[in-house]
Amino acid sequence: MIVEHAEFRVKPGASDAFEAAFEQVRALLLEADGCLRADLLRGVDVIDTFLLRVEWERLEDHTEVFASTAASRRLAAAIAPHCDGPPRVMHFIAQ
Questions:
Q1: 73-83 per-position pLDDT tens digit
Q2: Distance CA 94, CA 62 (A)
Q3: Would you kindly state where each structural domain of the chain is located, as residue ranges?
Q4: Any bridge partners for residue 41, and if so which?
Q5: What CATH number does domain 2-93 carry, 3.30.930.10, 1.10.3720.10, 3.30.70.100, 3.40.50.300?
Q6: What secondary structure, in 3-state letters, does the chain show?
Q7: How confident is the model over 39-66, as pLDDT tens digits?
Q8: Contacts of 84 (CB under 8 A, 6+ apart)
Q9: d(CA 54, CA 4)
Q10: Cα gap 10→1, rounded to integer Å
Q11: How crowded is residue 55: how many other Cβ atoms within 10 Å of its Cβ?
């Protein structure tokens, strides 16, 4: 299993809007082939920061399969207006 961590910095004051936008499109991620779980965590130490934690069966389920879908583009379009730049994305092997 692969765990994706995507750190988002949102525009000042846009945290609530970002969170609401993500909740509207969260199902797109959860319905993706290979997606096992997706959680959005709000930062405590740094205001207007979020961590998206997604569990995937395989790395390719995220980087190749989901990334090439209309669902991925819809998810990005919904949350991007609230972001202050692209997310920092890292993948980890869960044991």
A1: 999 999 999 99
A2: 15
A3: 2-93
A4: 51
A5: 3.30.70.100
A6: CEEEEEEEEECCCCHHHHHHHHHHHHHHHHCCCCEEEEEEEECCCCCCEEEEEEEECCHHHHHHHHHHCHHHHHHHHHHHHHECCCCEEEEEECC
A7: 999 999 999 999 999 999 999 999 999 9
A8: 9, 10, 11, 12, 48
A9: 5
A10: 28
A11: 16
Largest CA distance in the chain: 37
Contact status, residue 30 vs residue 9, Cβ threshold 8 Å: no
Please state, in angstroms and rounded to a whole number, the distance separating the CA atoms of residues 8 and 30.
19
β-pair partners for 54: 4, 38
Question: In angstroms, how far is CA 2 from the centroid of its own chain?
Answer: 14
Does 37 have pLDDT greater than 90? yes
β-pair type (88-93, 35-42)? unpaired
